[in-house]
Amino acid sequence: MFGKTKSKAWKQLENIYKHFQNTQMKDLFAADAKRGSKYCLQLENMLFDYSKNRINDEVMQALLALAEERQLKEKIVAMFSGKKINVTENRAVLHIALRNRQNTPIYVDGRDVMPQINEVLERIKDFSEDVRNGRFTGYTGKKLTNIVNIGIGGSDLGPFMATQALRHYWAKDIKCYFISNIDGTSCAEVLNNIDPETTLFIVASKTFTTIETLTNAKTCRKWLIDALGEHAVAKHFIALSTNKEEVEKFGINPDNMFAFWDFVGGRYSMWSAIGMIIAIAVGYKNFERMLEGANAMDRHFAEADLAQNIPVISALIGIWYNNFYNIHRYAVVPYDQYLQYLPAYLQQLDMESNGKAVTMDNKFVDYATGPVLFGGAGTNVQHSFFQLLHQGTEVVPVDFIIPAISHNEIGSHQPILIANVLAQGEALMQGKTEQEAITELQKSGKSKAEIERLKKYKTFSGNRPSNTIVLKKIDPYSLGMLVAMYEHKVYVQGVIWNINSFDQFGVELGKKLANNILPELEGRAFGAEHDSSTANLINHIKKIRK
Ligand code: G6Q
Prior knowledge:
- The structure is a single chain.
- The chain has 546 residues and is α/β, with parallel strands linked by helices.
- The protein has 4 domains: 8-69 and 304-430 and 467-503, Glucose-6-phosphate isomerase like protein, domain 1 (Rossmann fold, 3-Layer(aba) Sandwich); 98-287, Rossmann fold; 431-464, no CATH class; 506-545.
- It has helices spanning 8-20, 25-31, 35-38, 57-69, 72-80, 95-98, 114-133, 157-165, 184-191, 211-228, 233-236, 244-250, 276-282, 284-303, 310-324, 342-354, 386-391, 413-430, 434-443, 448-454, 476-497, 505-521, 532-545; strands at 40-43, 46-49, 107-108, 111-112, 146-150, 175-179, 199-204, 237-241, 257-259, 329-334, 372-375, 398-403, 466-471.
- The protein has a 6-stranded mixed β-sheet with strand order 1-2-13-12-10-11, sandwiched between helices. A 5-stranded parallel β-sheet has the order 6-5-7-8-9, with helices on both faces.
- It starts with 7 loop residues before the first helix and ends with a helix.
- Glucose-6-phosphate (G6Q) binds next to loops.
- Glucose-6-phosphate binds at residues 152-155, 205-207, 210, 213, 265-267, 352, 504, 507.
């Protein structure tokens, strides 16, 4: 069994931490003029600068020893070769197969999964092109220009994030909409703004049993039938699912269904048929470029030495903070408006994957696992939560993401944006001493008393870590690389923590609990056992809704 007390590498890291914990990054920079380029990795157009972290060679070697001890290389091979590493659900985990551009066979239960993946990709290609070219039209012959994805969780966040990230590439006459929440507002605000004759609904659900998605899909189906009649459904509804039977039951012709498989986890599924809306919005060629970018990261992850491996290094640094500095949070801040939904996407990827407390050996962990992740687009968030990042009592490691070139190079917007991201990383690392604050206040002509009163408020402790990821441009290829990098980082951390990153029993609990309360709210059942708070809330809301 793996427990921190049993691990040699873990103990070594604890020992290093004892003498290293107060080391200041600015001293490390002062001592080594090449630190900035030394702790920096590059893969094609992606630069990963991890020099502004509380690390040195001793720390990195010990972290890599931990990875070796946890047999990370073997675990990577296990994933890529289709082993059933999702042990609680007895499933292989093969999002990498969805973008296996080399088309090398990958076997699950003795069967190569690539032919079926290629076949569905072909169908996505044909269908997305037919919609974009107006060959596949709506029931009344009009071009389908409003594309509505109905899905939730993994069947929403990935396609939503990616279509927004690639908005620059959208066909000019196509508009994408997303209905996810069971809140009627989610449906109403979309349906109020579209025309049934030009609308394609994509019902995206791996299981095709999720109450939010099915309820939303039924509402949309009724809305369409009311406008165009029952026969119109075949021309306006398609399904993305693993569950053909339920798709048929719902009333979608299986010819309009695009399959994926149980070796594709929901939050890892935007590379599969779940990415249909991306392909329609940006064109299949661009969708394929996204797969190619992810594939480039996959090959790097599978082939590069651990010490040169971007997802591995980023994961190990996260472990260093989480398990030794006891910093159980991190922020992702893309400095690109197109990436504004990336943090929300990564929240699911990271927190649903590694928010676990039982090991692969069926024991409770005796160490911290998945951190809390939050974020938002820079520079906006500089004007909100960055105060805490600079001067709060919590240390929050940050991932900064910045493209060197914008799709919208207007005047000096991009240089200002870049100056901001770099300045933030620098300021978080360097901080500002009391003496520096005093000198600054003196220069601004403040009186002695004023300086005395303000100097502490103007001081920044610094030594606050960040990674900086520089991309050339946010294009389909670099987006693929970036997302795959985070997917693999999450897997590496799961391996180190000896947890299964690929199940989600916590999410499934929510699905069941709501089903218990619904009949009571609707007055179809009474007296189910609840704690007094829940019972009181049910009664209170029932009274108001009467
Ligand atoms: C993702 C999770 C979860 C799932 C949704 C939607 O990894 O399993 O977010 O994607 O609950 O599920 P369906 O796609 O089955 O509707």
